[in-house]
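anyone seen this seq b4? input:
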Amino acid sequence: MLVDSHCHLNFPELVQNMGQVLEGMQSNQVGHALCVSVTLDKFPEVLAIAEQYPNIYASVGVHPDYEDIEEPTVDGLVSLADHARVVAIGETGLDYFRLTGDLEWQRARFRTHIRAAKATGKPLIIHTRNAAEDTLRIMQEEGAAEVGGVMHCFTESWEVAQAAIAMGFYVSFSGIVTFKNAQALKEVAQKVPLDHMLVETDSPYLAPIPFRGKTNQPAYVRHVAEEIARLRDVPLQHIMTATTENFFNLFKHAQPCN
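predicted toks r here
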């Protein structure tokens, strides 16, 4: 069995076809998925999906890319996370690729999420792009290691991975690892300890080869696992078993379905 540790099932491309999405998961041995929140106004959609389907879990958080929206507070996040189907805080983090200028508000938002995670005891889902140094610095300053989490859709260096792992974080690989031009990331995937690895789709984005350019879905996480198995020269079952165990070790509030 596999787990898609990061997807956005409430996005229109997927929620309108939930029947097909669930069938695809079943036929590809994807037993569970984590539907990740990116804004507070859409969080009820995320939670509704997790409440409807026992093999889907929810997170609560505000993505660093979104400006001029309802800003999260520690108390607000803690309150929303007080639900059995909410297993994580995020996605949160820093993104210096899409936005420029004074991004102190982004760093403040990240700190808010870390504090909420520590208050709830639920792990963090961290997004970082062109901001690894500040991301790691804030994680250290705010004591993110106390609660742990995952560096989602990882595209950084082996040194960044090592620093995150040292704080008790997992490293999650998406369909990007299947891309031909992602040689540096493939090398990281060969080095990350198997007991600190997760796999994800980030669907509906970043469909892996052979579906690149098409709408991604949780079923395609199998192709991510297959590529990692190829890179490490191990049976696919090793990757499936390890990443599934890792998911439930990290997201302790997620109860596996039979």
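Residues 145 and 248 are 18 Å apart (CA to CA). The chain has ten helices and eight strands. kinda curious what u guys think
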